[in-house]
Design a protein that fits this description.
Layout: H1 2-16, H2 43-63, E1 72-75, E2 78-81, H3 82-107
Length: 125
């Protein structure tokens, strides 16, 4: 789960910093290291990266004006409309958050509580 958190946070920082004006793959990003779990990485550090990533994402989205939606941005040199870039990232983050939930359910299977509507239990369920 930590590796996924690192990856999502790194991706968000890279994609959404200067979203409209620079390529979404920043030269200082070290993507491969996002998939390595360092022995000294703490949960508070991971949570800070996670929160920072989401702040960068929502800050970029909040700054968009209606006319920006038809503009073109770059991600790894590929031209995309702003709407297409947003959709691309939405799918990417959804996939990885789903992986995190799946791993959490597997890890806590005895005590897992539903994130939405719990299944009915008991007679007639």
């Amino acid at each position: 789960m930590a590796v996924l958190v690192q990856h999502i946070a790194g991706n968000m920082r890279s994609r959404w910093t200067d979203f409209l004006t620079t390529d979404g793959e920043k030269p200082d990003r070290r993507r491969d290291t996002e998939f390595e779990s360092g022995p000294g990485t703490t949960k508070p550090e991971l949570m800070q990266r996670w929160e920072t990533g989401w702040r960068v994402l929502f800050g970029a989205l909040d700054a968009l004006k209606p006319d920006d939606l038809t503009r073109t941005v770059l991600i790894r040199g590929e031209s995309l409309t702003v709407v297409d870039a947003i959709n691309r990232q939405l799918v990417h983050y959804g996939q990885h958050v789903g992986q995190i939930v799946y791993l959490a359910k597997h890890h806590k299977w005895r005590t897992w509580q539903s994130l939405s509507m719990p299944r009915r239990r008991g007679p007639g369920a």
